[in-house]
From TrEMBL:
Any one GO CC term of the record: protein-DNA complex
One Pfam short name: HTH_1
UniProt keyword list: DNA-binding, Transcription, Transcription regulation
Stated name of the protein: DNA-binding transcriptional LysR family regulator
A GO term for molecular function: DNA binding
Family of the protein in this entry: Belongs to the LysR transcriptional regulatory family.
Taxonomic classification: Bacteria, Bacillati, Actinomycetota, Actinomycetes, Pseudonocardiales
SUPFAM superfamilies xref list: Periplasmic binding protein-like II, Winged helix' DNA-binding domain
Keyword Secreted part of the UniProt annotation: no
PANTHER family in alphabetical order: LYSR SUBSTRATE-BINDING (PTHR30346:SF29), TRANSCRIPTIONAL DUAL REGULATOR HCAR-RELATED (PTHR30346)
Organism: Crossiella cryophila
Domain HTH lysR-type span(s) in chain numbering: 2-59
Length: 295
């Protein structure tokens, strides 16, 4: 007999590409995901994964099951939403994922507000990039995602998802105190610089390369504090959104861009989930936190 945890595990491996990544997104150990897949294989009498060098891929039988799992998980989520809407009570659990700076600056005050208003509601937060989070929301493995896109590269949502804008996050350039740039600069003035940026595959790194042709990224770091420490030592300059940036250390200063550059920040959820009082409560708290940040 198939069960939902097994289907969630298989769907997560399909969307994330590995057992390790699936375990991270489901907040489980790698062993727990492997055990769920092993039980699924015993139930069906067919292997679900096959080795491909250092990785794994789904077998033909697993791909057939995943196609059905999408519909099954969506139907279960819709049924849960209907029950909660009927009860009209803000209870249960809501899972949220957000990219790193939103997880740092936007979600803590929102979750604090949820706890104060709805003590019976459990909200769990995970840190994921938009390309990791969206398939999980579409597959009903996450309830909400906070994602970002850029004016020149709008985000395409999978079918069945809705979104609402939260804020426009302005981007500045951070440079060493003695840098040649003045208080305001244009993108054209940034050529020839050495850059400190995010790791490959992140939205901010991709955007930097689009707007600063031939950007020479010398150092990569996934944390603002690390990037700022490198800039302070004169090892490069950084393009840094204001959301989650925090206080600047000594040795660096901000250069504003002219014209202003920004990224859009959104909340994304399944259309049918909007019926759940719990989802509406979390969305309202996130929206209020965004309003507080933008003044």
């Amino acid at each position: 007999m198939l069960d939902l945890p097994q289907l969630h595990a298989l769907h997560a491996v399909h969307t994330q590409g590995s057992v390790r990544a699936a375990a991270r997104t489901l907040h489980l150990t790698t062993s727990a995901v492997s055990q769920r897949l092993a039980r699924l294989e015993r139930e069906l009498g067919k292997p679900m994964l096959e080795r491909t060098g250092r990785g794994v891929r789904l077998t033909e039988a697993a791909l057939v099951l995943v196609a059905h799992a999408d519909r099954i998980l969506a139907a279960v989520a819709e049924a849960e939403a209907a029950v909660e809407e009927k009860a009209g009570v803000v209870l249960g659990g809501v899972s949220v994922a957000a990219f790193s700076t939103a997880a740092r600056a936007l979600l803590p005050p929102a979750l604090e507000l949820v706890r104060a208003r709805h003590p019976g509601l459990r909200v769990g937060l995970g840190e994921l990039e938009p390309h990791e989070a969206l398939p999980l929301v579409a597959g009903a493995e996450l309830d909400l995602a906070i994602v970002q896109d850029w004016p020149d590269a709008p985000l395409e949502l999978p079918g069945g998802l809705a979104r609402a804008g939260l804020l426009d996050d302005v981007v500045d350039v951070v440079v060493p105190d003695d840098h040649r740039l003045g208080a305001v600069a244009t993108l054209a003035e940034l050529g020839g610089e050495s850059w400190v940026s995010w790791p490959e595959g992140t939205g901010c790194r991709d955007w930097l390369r689009r707007v600063v042709g031939g950007a020479d990224v010398v150092h990569s770091a996934g944390e603002h504090h690390t990037q700022l420490a490198l800039v302070a030592r004169g090892l490069g300059i950084a393009m840094m959104p204001r959301l989650g940036r925090g206080l600047l250390p000594g040795g660096v200063r901000v250069v504003e861009l002219e014209p202003v550059s920004h990224r859009h920040v959104y909340a994304v959820w399944r259309v049918e989930s909007a019926r759940r009082p719990a989802i509406r409560a979390v969305l309202e708290a996130i929206d209020l936190a965004a309003l507080e940040l933008t003044g």
